[in-house]
Amino acid sequence: MLQLIIDWLVYGVLGLPGTSRMAGMLNFFLYDSIKIVLLLFMMIAFIGFFRTFIPRQKIKEWLDKRGVVGNFCAAVFGAATPFCSCSSIPIFFSFLEAGIPLSIAFSFLITSPIINEYLVVLMFGFFGWKITLVYIISGVFIGVIAGLLLGRMHLETLLVKDIMKPDAGVFNKGKLYHGFKSRLFFGINEAFLIIKKLWIWILVGVGIGALIHNFVPQNAVQGIAGKAGFFSVPLAVLLGVPLYGSCAAILPVAIVLFQKGFPLGTALAFMMAVSALSLPEAIMLRRAMKLKLIAVFFMVTAAAIIFTGYLFNFLQRIIS
């Protein structure tokens, strides 16, 4: 139904010819933008409704554990939170103030921007359940392993002592929700607030994807990937670090690059680098970390993303 309405608008109301690249770009942009926003709204509202049943103190108990269990719980919690890298940092600070080990706090900080509910919905719609499932597993794996490695380095001395206190710590008692109606309103309100922050990034990402999809020849994209060869994955990560955006904005670009001939792992590594490693994030982290710790954090996370990119390239024929 949505596609029929957009076709009527583009080809009927605007009168653009069906063979026009401009018509194809506009059709792509309208359909994907509306579909993504609607999917995100429904999934964020559902997850927000579900989270009202989990006491915040219980979350602290789950995370405040030693060893792999604590890192795994932090990574899973990060995957369930709809945050970009910069939005995750205040919660990361709250973890440190609550006495949660740095290793576990890092597992959350790494996983939160890489995996979230809206990314899962988008990947499922574009790539299918196999690739989505492997991506979720690899994202949690990155968070756990990178957190453990950083913990083994005993980097606590590189934290700034007077860590900034966020306005509302994640472990406050918070509001209690009673009844279906109040929980539902919370989920819907959270969806509105997050979409309000994300919509411009979604439009920018889909717009770039529409331009590449309709105006950049497939041979040109394949040529770029072919020239990089084995080094396409680390190059994609290096290109992604200076950029900043949420997965909702970058995923459409990664999808189009994949459709144009980029290896799957290379496209996903670029997306993970943009969402999990950004210069604005480094600037914000400077409030809590010394430069050496920020550099180590970026290097370990980048190495984990590069490994995952190569893994996806290797498994592309199996999971596609």
Labels describing this entry:
320 residues; mainly alpha; 15 helices
Description:
This protein has 320 residues and is mainly alpha-helical. It has one domain (24-161, 169-319). It is 76% helix and 0% strand. The protein is built from 15 helices and no strands. It has helices at 2-13, 21-51, 56-63, 68-79, 85-97, 102-114, 117-127, 129-152, 180-215, 218-228, 232-240, 247-259, 264-276, 279-285, 291-319. Helix 7 runs parallel beside helix 12, helix 8 runs antiparallel to helix 15 (291-319) and helix 13 packs antiparallel against helix 15 (291-319). The longest helix is centred in the middle third of the chain and has 36 residues, at 180-215. It starts with a helix and ends with a helix. Mean pLDDT is 75; it is low at 164-174.
